[in-house]
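P.,

For your records, the input lines for the assembly:
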Amino acid sequence: MHTRHLWSLALAAVAAAAARAPSSGAGAAGTITGKVTFTGTPPRMRPIDMAKEPSCATQHQTPVMTETVVTGPENAVGNVVVYISAGDAAAGTPTEPARYDQKGCQYIPHVAVIQVSQPLDIYNDDQTSHNIHPLALVNPEWNKSQPPGAPPIHASYAKPEFIAVKCNVHPWMHGYFAVLTTSHHAVTGSDGGFTLPGLAPGKYTVTAWHEKFGTQSQEVTVAATGAVTANFVFKAQPY
Amino acid sequence: MPSERARTSPVPAQTGVVAGIAAITMTFAAFTSAMVMRKGGASDWAPLHLPPLLFANTAVLVASSGALEVARRRLRRDAPGGSMWLSATLVLGVLFIAGQLAAWRDLAAQGVFLATGPSSAFFYVLTATHAAHVLGGLAALAYLRYRVRRATIAPLGTLGAVATYWHFMDGLWLYLLVILTVFV
Amino acid sequence: MGKVFAVIVVAIAAVSTTIFALHLWWPPPDISVHGAGIDHELGQTMIATGVLFVAAQVALALFVWQGSDAREGRTVKRFPGGATPLVAFAVVLVGIEILALTFVGSKVWANIYIAPPDSGALHIDVQAEQFAFYFRHPGADARFGGLHPDLIDDGSGNFFGLDPANDTTARDDIVSSSLVIPVNRPILLTLHAKDVGHSFYVPDLRLQQDFVPGLVIPLHFTATRTGKYEIVCTQLCGLGHHTMRAFLEVMTPDQYDQWLKTQAAQQ
Amino acid sequence: MPDTHGAPQGFLRQYVFSLDHKVIGKQYLGLALVAVCTGMVLSWLMRWHLGWPSAAVPGLGAVSPTGAPSGMITPEYYLSLMTMHGTIMVFFVLTTAPFAGFGNFLLPIHVGAEDMAFPRFNMMSFWVTFLAFAVLVSAFFVHDGPPISGWTAYAPLSAVGKDAGPGQGMGQTLWAVSIGLFCVGQLLGALNFIATTLDLRTKGMSLARLPYATWAWFITSVIGLIAFSVLLPACILLILDRVAGTSFFVPAGLVISDRLQPHAGGSPLLWQHLFWFFGHPEVYIAILPGFGIVSHILPAVARKPLLGPKVFIACLVTIGFLSYTVWGHHMFLSGMNPFSATLFSVPTLIITIPATVATLLWIGTLYGSKLRFNTAALFCLGFISVFVSGGLSGFFLAQPSVDVYLHGTYFVVGHFHFVMGVAAMFGIFAATYFWFPKMFGRMMNETLGKWHFILTFIGVYCVFMPMHFLGLAGDVRRYSAFTDDYMKGSLPLHRFITVAALFTGAAQLLFLYNLVRSRFRGPLAPANPWDATSLEWSTASPPPHDNFGGQPPTVFHGPNEYGVAGRSGDYIMQASPEPEPAA
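Structure tokens returned:
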């Protein structure tokens, strides 16, 4: 909890630095690609027992697994947010709302990446009441219920922060809002791969954030064309 | 038009004070039982060293009760000096409050605050609630002194009621001192 | 007007009593060893209060009906014997009822809450939280791992705050969201709350007990019928109070053993 | 400080910051009227949601966009409605109207005084209560909305702040402040009632000659004096836990909304003990004035003396005393030592004896009576019927072994709504129809009144009797919706209750209309329209500023001289100097 708080502060500092960095020009074509992997033994994910909520349990043929650490073949790590933390130009605020779904008593996507001030619409697709409680520390915290059939909840955040999201009604439901200042970001799938396209030539700091493993950063220089590779390796422990 | 009865009867004020005392007794009984229950099940109860100043304050409050008793007897006999002794009561009462404030500052300087632990919490709550009631008594004393200065005849009914209240504050403080010594 | 009132009162009494007597709404069939005592007590109270209810409402209606007689020159009548027989009646009747109910009832109560659990009872740890119940079997080592509130992590399924990294007894604890028990075997639950007050209520079991944060409260029972029943929270615990529930699954011993094996493999 | 004051000059002194107990009584009743309308609208919203959980309430979305987006009531909004309904009804209606309202208006007149003993305290009492109400209602307008922890505000849900849910931040703090203020207001009122009854009785008004309503107000004020002075410290401790970081009620190691709470060692049961030590006597604070009002009105409408007046007073005193020994019956299943359940069960059952006796005295009074069926009489009769129904269901809950099954179900809701909600409301209605002519100098419309009674009487039985059925079937109270399989079978009955509640609520419009119309258009009232005996009927309607026009009455009789044979009128007024009739 405490570390998360420090994190948000660090992120804010980095974001401030980014605002002063040279801007990426129009028509930039540089790309950063890479893969996020782990070493060691990651914690085993457990099946989620949704017996309490039959309307959700019946939606899943096989039990849903917890999503704290999602791994793939060849030690790939999913749900890692990779983004430019320094060197990027200040981006305009997208007006297109991002979408966050509650479906089958799961958050889809598990991590929603939005930009500062970008609208976020939260939908309840289930036949049961959900409750969205983003545990923000830098931004204002709120806690609202959404009965089935209720209109989407509109949210947005003014400051960069990784915000844990929980549903008070269904204790297993956990997700994240990653509020970033940059428009260059990606979330790894279970293959661990990511691509950050459209970067102007220059020096960047690329950061990878994972809810359990923490963050790593590296400096990357992007040429006028072509792709640069940046891989991240996290150390995992079974418990 | 005030009736004859209402002008002379000293009784309602006295009844009111007795009823008020009953209520205050219940309030402090509730605090006390809360303290006993809270301490009973707790592993986090750290004993508190009472500031020695409290004992000096106790002496001041007892003295103020004595001064009020002198004032009451003089006023009842229409003897001179009643008003002065009333003033003395008032001064001693203010001194008590000042002493309590000093005791709190003393504790705070040692790093003992309201939320430090259950014992300090009860200490502050009990002493502050008592002090609030003493302040009410001081207001009544000031009003009484004003009436005595203004009127040729002392308002004996009010005097009796205020004296009962003030002595009760005195007794209440002695009770608090005992339970603070024993429990906190 | 008086006659209208009298008719309404009698009609209300008749309809209410009929609905109670027909058991149109009634507790579900009892599935516990101790429940028969509660049902008996409930039935006795129902009869006793039912008689008093009908008697009082009918007397009220009758006297009001008579009192509405508007003929001139009628003088009022005193209640025969004055207040004394009424007081004696109330003290004796209600007194006997109190004695009987307390005597019988306290035995039933003692049977549930004061009697110690069977020494061979199956011990299951129960945690209530906003807004779910989680149940824990000790696993192969028959020992529960210690609880560490700072390690609680609902998102990765560590609802109890176990410390498998350092505490080997915690590694085989079986955590489930349903209370699965074998039939006809004494069960001992220990109830503790993670956050605020909750309550454990199974109507079919005739069992209800609050969870009090900071306390571990034992509760024991024996279920006598297999099946799936609902466990609900009856102590206001926050916005999701009405969704806080779990299932009680009473199984045959064979089914239970099988379930335990499956669960152990998943932990 | 016996305060005296002449007739006031100016609008503010006359109607707002008045020292006149009659104005203060009316102010309390006005506050209660606003509160009861608020509380009832909240209950309609709750009932709507319970009957049709997914149907939007027209217009609510605009009033409460967060709590009810597009008019759909969220679970936390439902709990807010419930908390505010309970708090408003228990404190600001059932305590203010029958006790502070009618008591203030009538008690000094009943004892033959020109005002309360401490008129300034009396004025403060009302304005502090008003402030308490304003603070409570302001919780509707703060960021997260009103609190959701019920009128009992069990810790730690009420003590840990916003992590416990929406409304548990500022809303819950406002709740605690409001209730603390309310305690102060009622303590000031209780002091006044006690001193006035004991010290300001006019010549000849011995305690034995006090009207029964005044006895009830006096005993209620003694109960209130003790009860509110325990709730006040409890509220102070709760506020400190919430805002100052102390741990009176919050134990260590609680994780709420994924956050480890910074408290240690507190005891949640401590709050329950303090609260119910107040809370159970509070039930009697709500109902005993109703006892007094019924016993006061019944002889006047039955035209015969109350049966066993001394026994009745003894019942009141016994109930008042026993009310302090039974609080644990709210906590049978809360983790107390199980032995104490039996300990608390016995006095709980014993307290039914004086209540039974009182009921039998009323029914016995009706025997052989010549009832005058005015609206006040009907509401007294309704009171008896409803009190019997609610009282008997208490027998179930008083036994720990039956409470095991029924605790926390709708059975409890049905029980306390009958016995302290509806019964007390019927007392208030009876008092309103009976004393309205005295208060405003005009008669209320009897035809409207009788329709109001019949519809309300049938309505409340349709609302609260089925709740007992629900409870027997295991329906849990305080659930915002029964959307899952559990208790789905009870939905039709819930809908029936909802319709009945809306119907009963609509019937109250008759009362409101009657009240407003009679206030301005009703026929002028004579001094003693009901041929009643107590002192208020000896003075003008409405009474002059000093109640008796400068001449305090002398009392020659008790209040019970009805059905006197062998003379033109069948009653003797308390202030009438004629001799006692031969027995």
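Two observations worth noting. The CA atoms of residues 87 and 128 of chain A lie 45 Å apart. The longest strand of chain A covers residues 30-40.

Regards
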